[in-house]
Amino acid sequence: MSHVNNLRSLLISLEERTEGETVTIADLLNAVGRRAYGPVLLLLGFISISPLSIVPGANWLIALVTLIFALQIVVGLKFPWLPRRALDFSFPRKHLIGGIHIIEKHAHAVDQILKPRLTFLTQVPFINLVALACVAAALITFPLGLVPFGPFLPGLTVLLFGLALTARDGVLLMIAIGSLLGAAMLLIRILPRVMAFLGI
Hints:
By secondary structure, the protein is mainly α. The chain is built from nine helices and two strands; from the N terminus they run H-E-H-H-H-H-E-H-H-H-H. Helix content is 68%, strand content 3%. InterPro entries: ExoD.
C-alpha cells in the first residue's frame, strides 16, 4: 500500500525520497508509489500547479502522462504503464522543493478537513468515472496550455480527484467535479481565441 494518505504526506515523500539536482517523472512516481491510483493522480495534479510547470513543455507532458494513466484506469489495468521517454523527463529539483514549500503552508489546513465520507464514490465502479473525469481534465489542458495560467484549473482538478481518492473523501470528489466544470467553462470562453491563434 502507498504511504501517501493526504497532501502533507505527499509533500514529505517527495522531499525525502528524491535527491540530486534534477528529478525525473520516474523518481517522483517511485517516491509516492506508482501502483496506487490516488497518490499518482495527486502527484500529477501537484506538478501541474507547482513551479515544476514552468519548465518548457511540462504542462503538456504532464497532461499526456495523466491522459495515458487515466485511460488505463478506465479500462481496468491494475498496474498502468507509462512510456520510458515520459518517465525520463527531468526537472530541476529546486523547483520541486520550491513548490513543496509553497503548498506545505496550506497542507495542514487542507488535511484537517479531509476524512472518509461517501467512501463508495471512491471505489469501483466510480473510480472509473473519476478516471474519465481526469481524461477530460488532461484533454482540456492541451488548448489551455496556450494561455498563461490556463492549465492551472484542470491541474487543480486532477489534484483534487487524486486527493479525494487518497483520503477516500467522496465530498471532495464532488468538489473536484465542480472544478472540472469550471475548467470546461474556461475552455469554452477562450476557445475562439485559441482557434484564432492556431489559424483555424
